[in-house]
Structure formats: structure tokens, C-alpha cells
UniProtKB/TrEMBL annotation:
Domain of life where this protein originates: Bacteria
Protein name from the UniProt record: 2-deoxy-scyllo-inosamine dehydrogenase
Cofactor(s) essential for the protein: Zn(2+)
Enzyme Commission number(s) of this protein: 1.1.1.329
PANTHER family registered for this protein in UniProt: L-THREONINE 3-DEHYDROGENASE
Transmembrane stretches, start-end: none
Record-stated family: Belongs to the zinc-containing alcohol dehydrogenase family. DOIA dehydrogenase subfamily.
Annotated function: Catalyzes the oxidation of 2-deoxy-scyllo-inosamine (DOIA) with NAD(+) or NADP(+), forming 3-amino-2,3-dideoxy-scyllo-inosose (amino-DOI).
Organism: Streptomyces hundungensis
Keyword entries, A-Z: Metal-binding, Oxidoreductase, Zinc
Length: 376
């Protein structure tokens, strides 16, 4: 078969398309992967509408796992062979600059994501060649983006390792001491649920989960297991909570001394800063939600409370390898995070489900190359 099905985006359109394209041709450093699972992230549609995709048309999707089918000569010399189970690391980097060699990959001037956005102003030759992503039957990537997938980790979960590594990076940046209390906003989304799964490995003593829906919060709180957990449903706050700091009041009621950290994954609205206002003196807020809402309080407030605000847009490769080790050893059991599976032909309805989340939905994947497993 010389063609494949792929989900694409085009310049001047906010719509996605299902197309038949040629299977990519390989260079010496490349591998061709038959995609068994591709992760879905609704944020890519937001970035598409904002013009963050620097190369269009493109195949969408920055999360993929599958089996190598063909290797170039350089890839073969580096130990890669057909039949190997792998996950694809989505981040393109130069690999030689100060950021890349000090575990700060996201600061590389060449930093971009396959099937996704590019962030720097510099010319990006890697992104020009490897901008196509994993929402397709096949993907071509350079061999250095491959990570072996442990045999005890499914392709579906392998495709979502990036989200778990993002949550791991956010938890590291929070610099929590054992016994800390952590507030997680947008807790019923992909990043929130990944954080809940990883929280025990950071010695967190108590979780406060913030989300829009009571029903979804009740469902997600079960992921915390024995970890003491409280929930705050935005739909249950007073109707004027957005203007009268209702979330801050509720969090302060639960945590009179303040939270040790807030991990904020909120994409818009007042939740980010109202949760920040519930921090204890000297505490940290880590933001990975892309919220454009301006900060409502002065820098004096930050100074007086000695708050630390940290922004991060991605994980590093070392975070990925740490997550893979946790899963390979069985210390991290995360297969139940995959709640929905779809064939490639249902990608539009799958993204709609992710954006509306009318039912409990943690992580969703597309299975392009085989019949999807039954949805949870």
C-alpha cells in the first residue's frame, strides 16, 4: 500500500480533514512507524486557530506509538529495526544548545512539536521536514525521537506518555516537600488526571481538585486511591464567583493556612488567579494551561507573600524516560487513564467530545491501524 489515511489541517481553515496521502519516503536518519495509537489533545485546535502552526498543510497529532516498519541506514546503524515497539517523542530540538544539554529542552530556539505548533522566531529546518504528526496510519520521524516502549505498556498508554511527562515536569517545578497540600485546577482533564496519578510519588499528603462539573470530579477523585482528596466544583459556587473571588474563598475555607502549591492547567478565565490567591506564603503556582487572562493583583502581592510563579509549556526528555521507568517497573499503573478509543474516521466527534466533556473522559486515543478496543 503506497497511500495512507491521515488527519490534516490547511492554511486559512479551522477545520480538520481526513485525507488520503502518500506514505512518507525515508531519508537515511528516518524511520517509518505504523501508528497503533495516537493521542488526542483538544488544545491543538486552539493553537491552530491562533496561527501557531508554522507549516500548513500538515498532518496533525503530536502523540503516537506503534511499530517500526522501515528504517533508514543511519537509523539502522543506531540500533533501530523493523518490528520494535516504540513511542514517538514529539519535541524537535537542536540537541546541542545550552538549553538542550541542561534538561531545559523547551527553551531551545528550534523547539517545535511534530503535528503541532512551533514556538520560536528562528528558521526551523527540523520542523520544516518533520512537521507531520501521528494522526495517520504511518508517521516518518528521525530515529532520535524514538523511545522503546516497555512490553508491559500498551500502545494506547504509550501514546499518552507525553502528558504524563508534562505532569511530572509540573510537579518537579512545584518543589514540594513531603506532606504538602496540592491544588490541581482543570483536574478532570488530561493533565489533571495525569497529575493525580503521579502525586503519590512526590509525597503529597492532600489533594484539592478543582473542576467545572461535580459528576466528573466525583469520578476523577477515585483515581487518587487512598490519598486524602477534596473537590471543588465551579458549578456549585455562587453565581458571582468569577467576579467576587468565590473560588479563593472556597479554597481558603478548605486550607486556612493556604496551599503549598497550585498546578494550574486552566486554559482561560478567572480560575488561575483565584487559585493562586489561595497559596500559602512562600508557595508556588505552576501554570501549564495557556490562560491569556491578565493577573488581577499587583506585583506587590507577589512580593509580600513571597509567591513563586512558574510557567512551563512542556516536559523534557529526561521526564519522559522517568515516566517510562515508572511504568516498566510497575510503580506507575496508569492504563485506566485511557477512557475513550476511536477509529481514525471518528476523529471529529472524538475532538468534540474532548472539548465538551459531557461525560467523564480522561485521555482519548485514536487507533488508526487496527480496530479500536472497546471504549471504557
Amino acid at each position: 500500500m503506497s497511500t495512507m489515511q491521515a488527519v490534516t489541517a490547511h492554511a486559512g481553515s479551522a477545520e480538520i480533514h481526513l485525507e488520503t496521502l502518500p506514505i512518507p519516503e525515508l531519508g537515511a536518519q528516518d524511520v517509518l512507524v505504523r501508528v497503533a495509537a495516537a493521542g488526542l489533545a483538544p488544545g491543538m485546535l486552539t493553537l491552530l486557530s491562533r496561527g501557531a502552526f508554522r507549516h500548513l498543510p500538515t498532518v496533525l497529532g503530536h502523540e503516537a506509538a506503534g511499530t517500526i516498519t522501515t528504517v533508514g541506514s543511519e537509523a539502522q546503524a543506531n540500533g533501530w529495526a523493523p518490528g520494535q515497539r516504540i513511542r514517538v517523542h514529539p519535541q524537535l530540538n537542536c540537541r546541542t544548545c545550552a538549553a538542550c544539554t541542561t534538561d531545559r529542552d523547551m527553551l531551545c530556539a528550534q523547539q517545535a512539536m511534530i503535528g503541532h505548533a512551533a514556538f520560536g522566531p528562528a528558521p526551523m529546518p527540523l520542523y520544516e521536514r518533520y512537521h507531520d504528526g501521528g494522526l495517520a496510519e504511518y508517521i516518518r520521524v528521525p530515529h532520535w525521537l524514538l523511545d522503546p516502549l516497555p512490553d508491559n505498556v500498551s500502545f494506547d498508554l504509550g501514546a499518552k506518555v507525553h502528558d504524563l511527562a508534562n505532569a511530572l515536569r509540573a510537579l518537579k517545578l512545584a518543589a514540594l516537600r513531603p506532606g504538602s497540600t496540592l491544588v490541581v485546577t482543570a483536574a478532570t482533564g488530561t493533565m489533571g488526571t495525569a497529575t493525580i496519578k503521579l502525586a503519590p510519588y512526590f509525597g503529597i499528603a492532600r489533594l484539592i481538585l478543582v473542576g467545572r462539573s461535580r459528576a466528573r470530579l466525583d469520578a476523577v477523585s477515585r483515581l487518587a486511591g487512598a490519598l486524602p482528596t477534596d473537590t471543588v466544583a465551579l458549578e456549585e459556587l455562587d453565581t458571582d464567583w468569577t467576579t467576587e473571588s468565590g473560588l479563593t474563598t472556597r479554597l481558603r475555607h478548605l486550607l486556612p493556612q493556604g496551599a503549598d502549591a497550585v498546578l494550574d492547567y486552566t486554559p482561560d478565565g478567572p480560575t488561575t488567579w483565584q487559585a493562586t490567591a489561595a497559596l500559602a506564603p512562600g508557595a508556588t503556582m505552576v501554570h501549564m494551561g495557556g490562560n491569556p487572562t491578565p493577573c488581577p493583583f499587583p506585583a506587590l502581592t507577589l512580593m509580600t507573600n513571597c509567591w513563586r510563579l512558574v510557567g512551563t509549556r512542556s516536559c523534557t526528555r529526561s521526564d519522559v524516560h522517568e515516566v517510562l521507568r515508572l511504568m516498566e517497573t510497575g510503580l506507575l499503573q496508569a492504563e485506566n487513564l485511557i477512557t475513550h478509543r476511536y477509529p481514525l474516521t471518528e476523529v471529529r466527534s472524538a475532538l468534540h467530545m474532548l472539548q465538551t466533556r459531557t461525560e467523564p473522559m480522561w485521555m482519548a486515543v485514536i487507533n488508526p491501524s487496527e480496530a479500536p478496543q472497546q471504549r471504557s
